[in-house]
């Protein structure tokens, strides 16, 4: 069953087309990351999925219903980057208040435990640190025992230990059949957590695959090297998918970052041609390199 169904949704603000005919289906139980550079249309997309904004064209369905219907709202939790409640209420009071709005709610103590807030339950919101506010926002998002959970930059203010604990809770939710959609600028974290990654740029869907599949769209390896081979020579080699100069390299020699499916062939060819190679490093292509490549290519097409 597809929990989220978005069909050809578009949204404009004046002359600016923020989202352009985007399609997205998310089945039950997946952890899906929605990525995109600033201004890509990611936030507008999430707001339309949540029913906070209506698309100018196309349609959105959550659980086969309108996203702003009482049925859908009762089954959705969202952790947005907003103020979490009145400053003079305690954490426990805030959680107890919010859970009353849902027909199926988790116990207050269970919510506080999942969000690691038991020790702060008597603290007022105004006394909380940034990371504690993030955990309270998560507590309010899960208060209604949602089947679909939206998380917007959920670990932005958390330290390494807190981030690890947070994602453990999210994975535990997913094992119960819950569906998770989240946005993040932490691509290493996204690579570890997501079952699937959706990349949006210039209001359009530019990639939709597993983390391994997204990285495979660019290349299998990233090669860092300094050589006297020219840009044209490197770019023409079999298996090279992308090529970037380091420190303003120009002309016939310098340092390069090469995305390639065949690093061995690249090096064999350079050596057979008598080219010098120094500063060599070969690593697995990471999600950041793939993301930059995809969004850069999207920008070039848009231009």
Q: How are the strands of the biggest sheet laid out side by side? A: 5-6-7-3-8-9
Report the structural category.
alpha/beta
Order of helices and strands: EEEHEHEHHHEHEHEEHEHEEHEH
Radius of gyration: 23 Å
| Spans where pLDDT lies below 50 across 5 or more residues | none
What would your notes on this structure say?
A hairpin with an 8-residue loop joins strand 11 and strand 12. It contains 11 helices and 13 strands. The protein has 303 residues and is of the alpha/beta class. Helix content is 34%, strand content 29%.
Fold topology:
Layout (H helix, E strand, L loop, with lengths): L1 E12 L2 E12 L3 E5 L6 H9 L6 E6 L7 H5 L1 E4 L11 H9 L8 H7 L15 H13 L5 E5 L7 H16 L3 E5 L3 H7 L2 E6 L2 E6 L1 H6 L4 E7 L3 H5 L4 E6 L8 E7 L2 H10 L4 E8 L2 H16 L1
Parallel strand pairs: 3-7, 3-8, 5-6, 6-7
Antiparallel strand pairs: 1-2, 1-4, 8-9, 10-12, 10-13, 11-12
Give a brief description.
34% of the residues lie in helices and 29% in strands. It has 303 residues and is α/β, with parallel strands linked by helices.
Task: Kindly list the characteristics that best describe this protein.
four-stranded antiparallel beta sheet; single chain; 303 residues; 11 helices; alpha/beta; six-stranded mixed beta sheet
